[in-house]
Automatic annotation (TrEMBL):
Superkingdom of the source species: Bacteria
Residue ranges of the region described as Disordered: 96-144
Protein name: Uncharacterized protein
Organism: Frankia alni (strain DSM 45986 / CECT 9034 / ACN14a)
Biased composition range(s): Pro residues: 109-144
Length: 144
C-alpha cells in the first residue's frame, strides 16, 4: 500500500442485542478510515500500527491484527470470514514487478502485447436456393 496507512484487521465480538453490527463497525471510524468490512465481525481499518493496542482495548473488540491471524481465531471464522481474511493477507504480500516504475519502451524492455484479435463471426448460412421452376402446363390444356 503505497503512501497510505497500513490496514489492520479488526475482529469484533459477536453483535450484542442492544447494539447492532453496523453501529459497532461505524464506531471504528473514530480511529481511522474503514476500508472494507464484513459485518458483523470483521473490518479493515487504515490506522497507524502504533494505535493497535488502543483499538484492541475498546469494548467489543476481540482482536486487532497487523500481519496475521492466530490459528485459534482462524478456526472460529465462517467460510466467508476466512475468505475476507485471506484476501487481506494476499494484499499484504509484496508483488514481483521487476520493471516497476520503468517506461514500457525503455531500452531492453519489450512493448506490451497487442490486444487480442477477436475471432471473426461465424459465416451466415447461405441463402436458400431459388425453387425450381414449375412444370409447364400440359399441352392439352388450352388457354382461353
Amino acid at each position: 500500500m503505497w503512501g497510505t496507512e497500513p490496514e489492520l484487521l479488526v475482529v469484533l465480538e459477536g453483535a450484542g442485542r442492544t447494539e447492532g453490527p453496523l453501529s459497532a463497525l461505524s464506531a471504528l471510524a473514530e480511529f481511522g478510515r474503514v476500508t472494507s468490512a464484513l459485518p458483523p465481525r470483521l473490518a479493515l481499518l487504515a490506522v497507524p500500527v502504533s494505535r493497535a493496542a488502543e483499538l484492541a482495548a475498546r469494548a467489543g473488540v476481540r482482536g486487532v491484527f497487523v500481519d496475521g491471524v492466530p490459528p485459534a481465531l482462524r478456526e472460529t471464522l465462517s467460510p466467508a470470514e476466512a475468505l475476507f481474511v485471506d484476501g487481506w493477507l494476499a494484499r499484504r504480500i509484496a508483488k514481483d514487478r521487476p520493471a516497476e516504475g520503468r517506461p514500457w519502451d525503455a531500452p531492453g524492455a519489450s512493448p506490451p502485447d497487442p490486444p487480442p484479435v477477436a475471432d471473426p463471426p461465424p459465416a451466415a448460412d447461405p441463402p436458400p436456393a431459388d425453387p425450381p421452376p414449375a412444370d409447364p402446363p400440359p399441352a392439352d390444356c388450352a388457354a382461353d
